[in-house]
Amino acid sequence: MKLNVSSLIKTLAEYNPIVNQTAIAMNKALLVLGNILLSIFLLMEMMRWYELIGSTSKKLPQKLWLEITFKYLVCWLLIQHSANILDGLMWLLDSGAHLISKVVKIKDYSYTFDIGHTKGVAKIILNLIGGTVSLIANTIAGLLIFMRYVELYFLKVLAPVLLACLVNETVRPIAITFLKYFSSYVLIALGLSIISAIYTALSPTNFFAAIVEVEKIPYGVALASIFEGGIYIVAIVSVGRIMRQLLGV
Length: 249
Fold this sequence. Notes:
single chain, mainly alpha, elongated
């Protein structure tokens, strides 16, 4: 399985149009729930203000009415167009991967085990180990791309409900965390694009040339290739965690 750079920067509609249409349909179905939550938050806020100002026998100032109206109107628009807004956010954050692919001319990367000049029983053993590492590395790369899109579709469906939390101070962190999670999954494309660019430019020999003389070590090329595969696995698995840590989620 190649770390396909072109698939990393596909929109949700391009990656799987059928699943995207299903996600949009479910998103629209949850608009009712989002609007109900927004109405409940509005009612709670109005009751709070009436209780606060009513004790002073005064009316709600016109400026306060305008602020409340504007806040809830903006949130209502976010809920109604949440699918398109998230698509736009994804396009914006994916622009980093687009720019890298244009400047560096990234090619699809697929880890391949290099046995070198190993012969005999050692060749069989190292081939088995290297082949396993290669299978694991490239399978994980494919699964990461697949699970990234699954998570993005999932979050797109829940958007109307979670974005409604923006207007309420108590539950606002839920909406902010939701937006951070969505952004972190989108930015995985940028992280994997960087790794793809780095690994495409490196070979096992170049990778360890600054540390040891690979050719002078018994089975050096094969061992270096296995080690490179291990580092590759750690690098691609840690991308999602790094992006979430950077965004504080």
